[in-house]
Backbone:
């Protein structure tokens, strides 16, 4: 029997070789999942499931105000557009949002948003942000929003799918 082995009834078992092989397999699997973009999704799914398991359904949630409903819908539309489906599912569950999203036209009407045809390909939240970053004035926000964009997000990216963006 060698120094790295454990004896068992059929001979010698190389403990370090098995551990190193398993470790190498885990590292290769992790790298492959990261390259495919699946590892982040798996981690998000696990977080969502842990949240659902820990969520105490016996404690009643406060009533969802009209304003919070609209804000959450803007956020959900943004999350869905960017394919953050597990994050969106946690938001829906934790906030007490209806499972079925509000109709986009209804949401735009409630927020007094007038869209052109090019704006309908991106979430409403992008349009709201773009309005204020381009100098849109609203009395209640004109002193709190930056006069120069803090985001380096080119306009040409807004209409593209997440995988096609710079």
Residues:
């Amino acid at each position: 029997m060698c120094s790295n082995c454990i004896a068992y009834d059929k001979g010698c078992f190389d403990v370090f070789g098995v551990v190193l092989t398993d470790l190498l397999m885990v590292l290769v699997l992790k790298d492959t999942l990261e390259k495919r973009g699946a590892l982040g999704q798996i981690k998000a799914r696990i977080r969502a499931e842990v949240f659902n398991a820990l969520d105490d359904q016996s404690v009643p949630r406060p009533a969802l105000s009209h304003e919070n409903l609209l804000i959450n819908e803007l956020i959900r539309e943004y999350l869905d557009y960017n394919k953050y489906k597990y994050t969106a599912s946690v938001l829906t569950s934790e906030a007490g949002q209806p499972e079925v999203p509000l109709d986009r036209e209804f949401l735009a009407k409630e927020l007094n948003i007038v869209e052109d045809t090019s704006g309908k390909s991106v979430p409403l939240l992008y349009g709201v942000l773009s309005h204020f970053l381009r100098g849109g004035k609203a009395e209640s926000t004109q002193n709190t929003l930056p006069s120069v964009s803090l985001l380096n997000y080119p306009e040409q990216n807004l209409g593209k799918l997440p995988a096609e963006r710079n």
Remarks:
- The helical segments are 15-36, 38-54, 66-81, 85-95, 104-110, 124-133.
- The radius of gyration is 25 Å.
- The first strand starts at residue 5 and ends at 8.
- The chain has a mean pLDDT of 75.
